[in-house]
Specification:
By secondary structure, this protein is an alpha+beta fold. Helix content is about 35%, strand content about 25%. A seven-stranded mixed beta sheet has the order 3-4-5-6-7-8-9, sandwiched between helices. The structure holds D-MYO-inositol-1-phosphate. D-MYO-inositol-1-phosphate binds next to strand 4.
Length: about 290
């Protein structure tokens, strides 16, 4: 609704400010810390950028709530209530950032009554500002976005990621999924290294679909709205309704392509983002 336009414009302004910190640090040597796995990384810049974004928003909107990747990693409870909530990934593509692989994004979604009102994905190195507001279309640097409209899986270019999980079941499931898609056959498979950018590529029409298992709500909440506002569809990997907390997603140019991917892709067990890891027997990892 138009009532959140001011919040979205503020989000765009602070994303541009925060990107300066990311770009300054991009070429520099970084101290890298591990989180849930040897492929789940965090740097001082991730933490600094998240603090910058949250403190700016809190100063302007003191009653709003937050779900931030690094705040959750530091032990904050992940809870999506009906209150206006900013869902933030300060650097989506931290492995890329560490290696200076030039695709990193700031992802900011804003939800009210658990419905995403706007999404912002700023691909900093490329200087591409993606945004969508519910019911108002999707844009990159103010140019309207449209999916390819492709309905034929055999003519599709599909994006996915191996992600951070390195246990046997996850690796086996992910590689089997890729083999099953290639065997259909699809025309190609790609991975950019940031879920947020992977997914907005569907909104641009540059990719026909994206699927992923094991990412988190802050990686894809903003992009999911950008894809649907560009005319695409977003589902769970089992073909059911998209749930940003389920850690499973298919984004596609059309329903036939999304459903065909759901037929061949299997998920490995993942703790939901909104589930208390303390109460889960697998220790909270996928
Ligand atoms: C990761 C990236 C990556 C995806 C992982 C995410 P992060 O986010 O989006 O592409 O495969 O599942 O965790 O850790 O760089 O913010």
């Amino acid at each position: 609704m138009a009532e959140w336009t001011e919040c979205m414009n503020f989000g765009i302004t602070i994303a541009r400010q925060a990107s300066k910190v990311i770009l300054e640090a991009f070429r520099a040597k970084k101290d890298v810390m591990l989180k849930s796995s040897p492929a789940d990384l965090v740097t001082e810049t991730d933490q600094r950028v998240e603090k910058m974004l949250i403190s700016s928003i809190r100063e302007r909107y003191p009653t709003h709530k937050f779900i931030g990747e690094e705040s959750v990693a530091a032990g904050e409870k992940l809870e999506l209530t009906d209150s206006p909530t900013w869902i933030i990934d300060p650097i989506d593509g931290t492995v890329n950032f560490v290696h200076r692989f030039p695709f990193v994004a700031i992802s900011i979604a804003f939800a009210v009554n658990k419905q995403t009102e706007f999404g912002i994905v700023y691909s900093c190195v490329e200087d591409k500002m993606y945004r969508a507001q519910r019911g108002c279309g999707a844009f990159v640097n103010d140019v309207p976005l449209h999916t390819s409209g492709q309905e034929d899986i055999t003519k599709s270019l599909v994006v996915t990621e191996i992600g951070a999980e390195r246990d046997c079941l996850a690796l086996c499931t992910m590689t089997t999924n890729i083999m099953n898609l290639l065997a259909i056959p699809i025309q190609g498979i790609r991975a950019v290294g940031t879920a947020a950018v992977d997914m907005v590529l569907v909104a641009t029409g540059g990719a026909d679909a994206y699927y992923h298992i094991g990412m988190h709500c802050w990686d894809i909440a903003a992009s999911a709205l950008i894809v649907t506002e560009a005319g695409g569809v977003v589902l769970d990997t089992d073909g059911s309704e998209f749930d940003m907390m389920s850690r499973k997603v298919i984004a596609a140019s059309s329903m036939p392509v999304a459903k065909r991917i759901a037929q061949v892709v299997r998920a490995f067990p993942c703790t939901r983002d909104d589930e208390d890891p303390a109460g889960v027997t697998n220790g909270g990892h996928c």
